[in-house]
Design brief:
Shape: elongated
Structural class: mainly beta
CATH architecture of the largest domain: Sandwich
CATH topology of the largest domain: Chondroitinase Ac, Chain A, domain 3
Radius of gyration: 23 Å
Distance between the termini: 60 Å
Strand content: over 45%
CATH class of the largest domain: Mainly Beta
Number of domains: 2
Number of helices: 2
Order of helices and strands: HEEEEEEEEEEEEEEEHEEEEEEE
Length: 280
C-alpha cells in the first residue's frame, strides 16, 4: 500500500479489558469494516517456536476469525523492540483456523504513532482475519550445498562468520542454514568468570555463538571449516578452543588461529560451537 492511500484510513484502537494497555491498532479504508463486528483478543501462551526463536508480543486474534475482507487492512502489533537488533530479525507468524503456523509478510518492523511515542509496532497487511504473533529470531543465511562444495557467510558485528564445505564434503544437495549470536559485554564477563573458575586460567577472548542446521540429514565425507572473529585477542599466550558439539558437554576441539580469525576443522553433523581463547 502506498502511504498516500493510508493517510485517510479509519483507526480503531483495541485495548485490554483490565488496563490501558494496547492489544493492537487497526487502520482500514472507508467501508471495509462497516458491516463487521470486529473484535480483538490476546493470549500470552500457546505459540510453538523453533530453536533460537521467542515471542516478543502477545498473540492477537482478530475476530470473526477466518473472515475474508473486501480490501486489505493495516494491523499494528506492539512488541518488545529491544529484540530488534543487529543479530536478530523480527518476523510475524500467522495461525490459521486449523492451527497451522505460517510466515506473514510485514510492512514495517518499526512503526510508531504520535499518540503512543513510547511504543514500537510491527505493521502487517491483513486480508483474512486470523491470529498473529511477533517473533524474534537470529539472522539466518541459507544456501544449498552440493558435491561441488560452497561457502556460507553471515555478517556479525564488523566481521563475518564463514562456513566452508570443500568439494566432496556433501554428495547430495542439502539446504544448510547458518545462524550467529553475538555475545554482549555482560555475557562475555560472566563467561570469563565461569571459564576462569573451571579452567583455572583467564579467558581473554570469545567468538560469537555459531549454529549450523540442515534441512535433511546429509552424509558428510570430510571436514568442513568454520571461520569466525574473536571479540578480543590475547597479546601473549597459547590458544585453547572449547566447543559444544551436538549438545554434548564443553570440550576442547582442534583448531588453528590466524590474527582475529579461527579456522575449525570438525567432522560432526551439527555444529554448535562457542570458541574461547585462554592463556595457559
Amino acid at each position: 500500500m502506498r502511504k498516500k492511500n493510508t493517510d485517510a484510513f479509519r483507526m480503531r484502537i483495541f485495548r485490554r479489558d483490565d488496563s490501558d494497555g494496547l492489544i493492537c491498532v487497526v487502520r482500514a479504508p472507508d467501508g471495509v469494516l462497516d458491516d463487521i463486528q470486529i473484535q480483538c483478543t490476546f493470549e500470552t501462551e500457546g505459540i510453538t517456536t523453533k530453536p533460537h526463536q521467542f515471542t516478543c508480543s502477545d498473540a492477537i486474534t482478530l475476530k470473526p476469525k477466518g473472515k475474508k475482507l473486501s480490501k486489505d487492512i493495516l494491523v499494528a502489533i506492539p512488541y518488545d523492540s529491544t529484540q530488534n537488533n543487529k543479530c536478530r530479525d523480527i518476523i510475524v507468524q500467522e495461525k490459521d483456523v486449523n492451527g497451522r503456523l505460517s510466515h506473514h509478510p510485514t510492512n514495517s518492523t518499526w512503526k510508531t504513532f504520535n499518540n503512543y511515542p513510547d511504543m514500537v509496532f510491527v505493521e502487517i497487511q491483513v486480508k483474512t482475519l486470523s491470529t498473529f504473533v511477533v517473533l524474534s529470531q537470529l539472522k539466518q543465511a541459507r544456501y544449498t550445498i552440493d558435491n561441488e562444495g560452497g561457502n556460507i557467510t553471515l555478517p556479525v558485528d564488523d566481521h563475518q562468520v564463514e562456513v566452508e564445505y570443500p568439494r566432496g564434503t556433501i554428495h547430495r544437495d542439502v539446504e544448510v542454514s547458518l545462524e550467529v549470536e553475538s555475545l554482549e559485554e555482560n555475557s562475555f564477563t560472566q563467561l570469563c568468570e565461569r571459564r576462569t573458575e573451571s579452567w583455572g586460567r583467564s579467558l581473554v577472548s570469545v567468538s560469537p555463538l555459531i549454529y549450523t542446521n540442515y534441512a535433511k540429514k546429509p552424509t558428510l565425507k570430510g571436514n568442513f571449516r568454520v571461520r569466525c572473529p574473536l571479540l578480543s585477542i590475547a597479546s601473549i599466550g597459547a590458544i585453547r578452543i572449547a566447543g559444544q558439539l551436538q549438545g554434548q558437554s564443553w570440550q576442547d576441539v582442534h583448531a588453528s588461529s590466524s590474527n582475529l580469525t579461527l579456522t575449525l576443522k570438525v567432522f560432526k553433523l551439527n555444529l554448535d560451537v562457542h570458541l574461547t581463547n585462554s592463556c595457559f
